[in-house]
Amino acid sequence: MVFKRLAQVGLGLVGLSIVLFLGNLLSLRLFGPTQQIDIGNWGDQNSFAGGFEQEQNSQGETYRWTQAQAWIRLQGLNSANPRLLSLQVGGVPPRLPLSATLQISTLNASVVLPLAQTARNYQLLIPATNQQDWQVELRVPTQQVLPDPRFLGIRLDHVQLQTPSNVWASSTWQLLLVQVAIVSSLIGLLLLLKADKLTIAGLSLLSIGSLNLITGKFVLVAWAWQLRLLIVMLAATLIICCLRSLIQSQIRPLLSKQEYRYLIIFSVITFFIPLISILFPNFGSHDRLIHADRLDQVAQGSGLLLDKLYEFQGRETITPTTFYLLALPLKLLLQNNGVIIEGLYTFLHASSGLLVAIILLRWKVRPSIALAAMIFISAMPLQLTILWWGFAPQIVGQWLVLLFLASLSFQATPQPNLWTIGLVSLALWMHNGVALLTGVWLASYWVLGFVFDVAQRKHYRAWLICLIGISLFGLLAIYIDLFTTTGTTQAQPMRITTQLTAVINGLSASFAPFGIIFIATVFLLPFIKLEKSLKLLFLASILTFFGFISIDLLLGVQVRYGYFIVPFLLMLSLIFIDQCLFVVKYVDYGLIILALIIYGSSLAAWYDAIVLGVKPSLLGLTH
Q1: Hey, is 131 helix, strand or coil?
Q2: What angle do CA 485, 491, 495 make, to 5 degrees?
């Protein structure tokens, strides 16, 4: 029996390898002959080194000035055919000697080319080689053009690698092995979830097609992308192993067979779209370098991170190290701090939609409505924006709040325990702004519960005592700067009319595509039937939200983020629909169709941000 099972697994792996190999072969034939690196565009540093910062001229052309030495890394194709390398040089410093030359070295060959003040396009035929990972080295004389302190080489605008379109090229065996491991991990994860055969087959084919497409269209970064994705797959499988019994005993009984199938399908899709995006080397979040430097400081033993937080008008303060301590163990596995930081907070953030669905299911909301909530929260443009800008501690802080709510949904009473106390503690110690928002929100909730929920008063009293203890420890260990660091305000408050316009515009961006109308859901609270503790929870979130808007309007001090309230407003809206519009035939199916349409349209924004480097607006996070 064991031998038969091993034989089936072996044949399955062989078949999977053949399918992936043929898919890569076809994809490279269709999409792979021409690979381009837009120098100066976001993410070019994954294939280019030895240049200064990205620049853009008035015509919209992006470029980098090189240093005396620069390198272009080319990889991913397993072809013994000649390749044509094109370098578009936009110019040289104005005082560079006319006799200056550009030396290009690659694959044990070297050539010297003349430089000119005008733009030029150099084309070189690279000899046939089976070497799939190689570099092009550029050596050029440099010139300082005062007052610019830099010594500039050439202005490199574009790099293109072209292989003959009439030949077949295959992926490397290392990449094929990684792809097999990714799909195998996905199948194993679905088997752990006890998904049906149709679901496993459909998601497996979707993953195979995606991997093949990635390989063909983005050969130069396919290896780095898919290797990172494999690490995520293994981590996800490990977590599902630990949570399998909880899912089967607490979540599965709430759903029919068909509902459970759809929950798995959309969980996988909404989970991996953000992860595939953030792991794509060209994505590169805005704050990656800041977080990478902080992680290094913490790894070297620093317990003090001084910074000027934008939310507090640039006053010098201490950045809590909690998030970086959580990320520290991952340095044992990976050396790239940026990948560690981005992978961790995106891995957690990508599960936010699933947490919202679980919370609603545990609150006895119809499964179709909970599924719609998961799709809606994943489709909102704000989810892309916060990932692109890379506000890691804030993202993780919000995720911890949702996990706290999910944990409470499995309890009969709001009684604190070590697990929920730990979640609240981490959230409060994660980031100054998160502590301010979460602390006020939770304190409001527990005070309202103590006053109005007499039956559970002892539990709310216990939580208030815990909050005091958590806050005191945080003040002593982390936030002592609030007493010792005063700082100076770098910006004056705006006039209230100007600030009100900014807040309205920002709310529209935060809650797109629903706009300001989404805020009107706060008035639904009196019309829905909820347990007293849940009503008080929503009331606390609404009071907190409007309280911080009022502070912003009066003082001009940005102290909150729009996305903090989004899950609560979404849950409130859908609970109202579930309770008050259930008599309308097919309302839940119409809601899911609307969610899918919005989610489908949001994928265009993901593509633009990943492949084209289009920067999402920060407006929705600031006002």
Answers
A1: coil
A2: 130
Domain count for the chain: 3
Angle, helix 2-31 to helix 197-217, in steps of 10 degrees: 40
Specify the pairing of strand 55-56 against strand 62-75.
Answer: antiparallel
Please write the tens of the pLDDT for every residue from 37-48: 888 876 677 788
The rounded distance, in Å, linking the Cα atoms of 146 and 596 is 55
pLDDT at 379 over 70: yes
Per-residue pLDDT at 374: 94
Asked if residue 409 and residue 277 are part of one domain, the reply reads: no
Residue 393, preceding peptide bond in cis (omega within 30° of 0):
no
Distance CA 141, CA 97 (A): 9
Same domain for 340 and 216:
no
Contact 274, 383 (CB under 8 A): yes
Position 479 confidence tier, pLDDT thresholds 50, 70, 90? low
Please say whether the beta carbons of 78 and 169 come within 8 A.
Answer: yes
Burial of 117 (0-12, 13-18, 19+ CB in 10 A): exposed
Same domain flag for 252 and 270: yes
Please tell me which residue, 560 or 146, carries the higher pLDDT value.
146
Helix (H, G, I), strand (E, B) or coil at 590: helix
| R_g (Cα) of the chain, nearest Å | 27
Residue 583 has φ and ψ, to the nearest 5°, of -75, -20
Whether the Cβ atoms of residue 319 and residue 307 lie closer than 8 Å to each other:
yes
Same domain, 347 and 451: yes
pLDDT digits (tens, 9 = 90+) for 15-39: 999 999 999 989 888 887 788 888 8
* Whether 14 and 88 share a structural domain: no
Q: In 97-231, at which residue ranges do the beta strands (DSSP E only) sit? A: 101-106, 109-114, 120-126, 133-139, 143-144, 151-152, 155-162
Range of the domain at 133: 34-162
Label residue 487 by pLDDT band (50, 70, 90).
very low
Q: What are phi and psi of 341, to 5 degrees?
A: -65, -55
Position 282 scores a pLDDT of 65
Alpha helix positions (H), 32-110: none
pTM of the model as a whole: 0.85
Q: How confident is the model at residue 416 (pLDDT cuts 50, 70, 90)?
A: very high
